[in-house]
Amino acid sequence: MSYSCIEVESDKHPLFELCKQIRLEVFVGEQGVDADIELDDIDDYAQHVLITWRDNEGGNAVPVATMRIFHYEVPEQPEKLILKVGRIAVSQSYRKHGIGRLLMDAAEQYARTQGRKVKKPGVFLFMHSQSDKQGFYKKCGYFVVRSAAQLDGLIDGRTFKEPDEEELKSLEFMEDGILHVKMAKYVPC
User: Fold this and answer.
1) What is the pLDDT of residues 22-51, one digit of tens each?
2) How far apart are CA 53 and CA 1, in angstroms?
């Protein structure tokens, strides 16, 4: 068995349909998100990642996971390169096999590439994580943040103070009918 990671540039790429199928399966089918909300204008310019799985050398590749990543402008942080990661979805029968980690590794690789292109020492990855998934993202090195403007402490980790449990509850917000928190990670180039 083997996995492949494929970069899909924008929703015009023919493989975007496979990304779309996974997102509709997970977010609309499983989580009840409205299909009109799930697919949006950001898909036009985002970089998408598709993970496929093949059970043997001659078998067909099956699409099993996807995410998107795009440049995120924060007016208070114009000098920083911030990429927003989102629409992270793994088909139900392929969860618990390290595929989510493959997606997050792909996000970091993409961030490093983008940072090197513009000669930045590092890149911030930012996301709106579903609250019940934040444990996974913490294992991938992400921290709950109060806002995208509060990223500097992530560079060395010593000056960053994560919210305590009481504050964390106040930072949760509803997005598409699901509780979320803002999370971020600094990726050195």
Assistant:
1) 999 999 999 999 998 999 999 999 999 999
2) 7
